[in-house]
Amino acid sequence: MSSDADRIVEFLYEVGQLKRLPRAGWLFAGVQNPESVAAHSFRVGVLSYAIAVQEGANPDRAATLGLFHDVPETRIGDIPYVGKLYLDVKVPPEAVAADQVRHLPAPLAAHIEALVAEHESAKSYDHTPEARCSRDADKLELLLQAREYQAAGITKMERFIQTMQASVVTDTGKALMDSALRIAPSEWWEAFGKR
């Protein structure tokens, strides 16, 4: 008979797959070694926190939404936009998450299911301020990554940048987007040489 700890560790091994799962859309743009889904989710969590603080939302909740938002991708993969045009995906991320956590202790499972559902709710009008912050962070993280790849010499990034600009809805997200488009990715460390 397995324990709650066993089930949690099995879930953690599954979530660990996100460290090895590349963000698929970057492959179409010619990125040889794209970031992993886990790397993306980390910065989404940090961005969610920052946006939520500025927007007056709960930053801890927003960061947690950002951190967990792509957990279902361990089962369904990171499907790029071009792939979604051809796939009839009938199982929403919320249902995938529910299946992923069904063997976890009930309180933990309920929390994870709620996190994924709340983040996904930002696609509709029935969403929390924290979900809106997390969703903006998801879009802004992609824009930041595109700018970093662009600065590294990968030329097919403009489409990603333009697409994300139209997706950001919070005032803070829009301000961050404007700054990200103006400030070079290397600015943070180049400033050390100017001291």
Describe this structure in words.
- It is a single chain.
- The chain has 195 residues and is mostly helical.
- Helices cover 66% and strands 0% of the residues.
- It has helices at residues 4-16, 24-28, 37-55, 59-68, 73-76, 81-84, 93-100, 106-121, 129-151, 158-165, 171-182, 187-193.
- The longest helix has 23 residues, at 129-151.
- The protein is globular, with a radius of gyration of 18 Å.
- The mean pLDDT is 92.
- It catalyses: a 2'-deoxyribonucleoside 5'-phosphate + H2O = a 2'-deoxyribonucleoside + phosphate.
- GO terms for molecular function: hydrolase activity.
- It comes from Lentzea miocenica.
- InterPro entries: HD/PDEase_dom, HD_domain, YfbR/HDDC2.
- Homodimer.
Fold blueprint:
Layout: H1 4-16, H2 24-28, H3 37-55, H4 59-68, H5 73-76, H6 81-84, H7 93-100, H8 106-121, H9 129-151, H10 158-165, H11 171-182, H12 187-193
Helix pairs in contact: 3-4, 3-9, 4-8, 4-9, 7-8, 8-9, 9-10, 9-11
Q: How many strands, what sense, and barrel or not for the largest sheet?
A: none
The structural class is: mainly alpha
What is the arithmetic mean of pLDDT?
A: 92
Give the termini distance in whole angstroms: 61 Å
Helix content: 55-70%
Name the beta content range. under 5%
What ranges have pLDDT less than 50 throughout 5 or more consecutive residues?
none
Order of helices and strands: HHHHHHHHHHHH
Count every beta strand, where a strand is a DSSP E run of 2 or more residues. Answer: 0
| Number of DSSP helical runs | 12
Overall form: globular
Radius of gyration: 18 Å
